[in-house]
């Protein structure tokens, strides 16, 4: 099951309606895999199905990755439709709660952990069950972030969830090795998706110019390539690792939180990324809060 190009192989990609997730789904499909995409945003799912002509090799299911029944149903769809699961890509996530720690709301903090962290637990749990049941091994690839391995890569809640993904990746890699299931994570840097740019790609041009050593923009396909590699036999001796793909940002000791999130010192709330849910923002100056 943990092999390269084989038309029988099957991948699940959460958050596959756009950004890195869609790029990953397209990469697997281009290599002959069948792909089941889960995403909260049904409109993006419909667009995916209409724009990619993969026949029976592509399926979509609306999924709230923070809900166990939804994640279980996603894995069940893959097993019922294709009879196997070779790679589980736990990619779905949001920017989440932001603002000064003294101003953040506990429900927004908890929602960030549910979508970014609990989802990886659920995806790992149900994918591993399916893989163990088939008995041929498999791979699990989690989307972490350089924010999870540094103190300046993102807002507090987001960074904490991604640090949790890194830890869960290592512990489950050790646990599942006996079943020949490899578990790894990808730690992207500044990747030009809507989650980062929020519709304004020029926002992060200054990052590349000022603090990212590699001259090219990071795009979703670069991360999808790493995800695919971690799902194939070419990485057969790699497990429990967090592969950094960031254009050298970590090597340059970034302080993205200072560079990009200075304005967040005057606001708090939660950003739901590409889920279709509207963000919530509260603005304040010197303790004077207003919506």
Description:
By secondary structure, the chain is an alpha/beta fold. It contains nine helices and eleven strands. Strand 2, helix 2 and strand 3 (58-62) form a beta-alpha-beta unit. 46% of the residues are buried. Mean pLDDT is 88; it is low at 1-7.
Q: CA-to-CA gap between the ends?
A: 52 Å
H-E order: EHEHEHEEHEHEHHHEHEEE
CATH superfamily: NAD(P)-binding Rossmann-like Domain
Total number of domains:
1
Sheet/helix structural class: alpha/beta
Strand content: 15-25%
Radius of gyration: 18 Å
The level of helicity is 25-40%
Tell me the strand order in the biggest sheet. Answer: 3-2-1-4-6-7-8
**CATH topology title:** Rossmann fold
> How does the major sheet shape up?
7 strands, parallel
For the secondary structure, the number of strands is: 11
Number of helices: 9
Question: How would the global form be characterised?
Answer: globular
Averaged pLDDT: 88
CATH architecture classification: 3-Layer(aba) Sandwich
The top-level CATH class is Alpha Beta
Uncertain stretches: 1-7
In short:
The protein has helices at 19-30, 42-51, 68-82, 106-134, 156-176, 194-197, 205-210, 220-230, 256-260; strands at 10-14, 34-39, 58-62, 87-90, 96-98, 138-143, 181-188, 242-245, 267-271, 280-285, 288-290.
